[in-house]
TrEMBL record:
Pfam family, one: JHBP
Family that this chain belongs to: Belongs to the TO family.
Gene Ontology, cellular component aspect: extracellular space
Protein name stated in the entry: JHBP domain containing protein
Cited PANTHER family: CIRCADIAN CLOCK-CONTROLLED PROTEIN DAYWAKE-RELATED (PTHR11008:SF32), PROTEIN TAKEOUT-LIKE PROTEIN (PTHR11008)
Organism: Asbolus verrucosus (Desert ironclad beetle)
Amino acid sequence: MFVSAANFHKCNRQQPDWKECAFNAAQHGLTQLNRAYDELNIPSLNPYEVKEVSVAAGSGRSFAVNQHYRNCKVYGLNNANVTTFQFDFEKKTMNLNGLFPEVSIACDYELDGKILVLPVQGKGRSEITFKNGWAAILLSFEEAKKKRRTYLKFTSNEFVMKPELVTFHYDNLFNGDKTLTDNTNKVLNENWEAVFEDSKDDFAGIVEKIFLELINNFFSNVSVEEAFE
């Protein structure tokens, strides 16, 4: 699948084992992203840095909280295992499924809203960890010609993420009141399934945004001819 840098594998669409080659190249390429590749405009996945994410309070009963995160670092994405990888040039789609042992998002945070029936507010450091999860993303792409070469631009059709466990930790809630902070973290973790269900689209959106940025950066620099022929 991947070329331009020596650490990535290339697959020819005409070879008999094209699908198997593409699958193996996707898994191998993911494991190589523990460092940045400046020539491809691809940052390191260990960690991956996100400047800012805002999540508006939804209508869910468990986690109706305005969330603002800054200076985030995402750990563990490069340890995912690819279980399905399908690149369809006729339908212009990419389908990728994978398992991840652990993904953690550490940020500066600001919260204001309600968790279950409890009012909550504060700002400080936070860490949200997703354990033993499954994720699937379906992408569509368009082709564009540039200097007689073909480049791809991806958009997301669907993204789903299902962890077996989510843990939350927020420092300095309620202006540093340790008792209230500890109790709130306890409530979050004891009710993680309900909290995640209310906010799963927002949490998944963070990972989805990262994946789209990575793949679009790559295919805006590496043509189809370079990657697959």
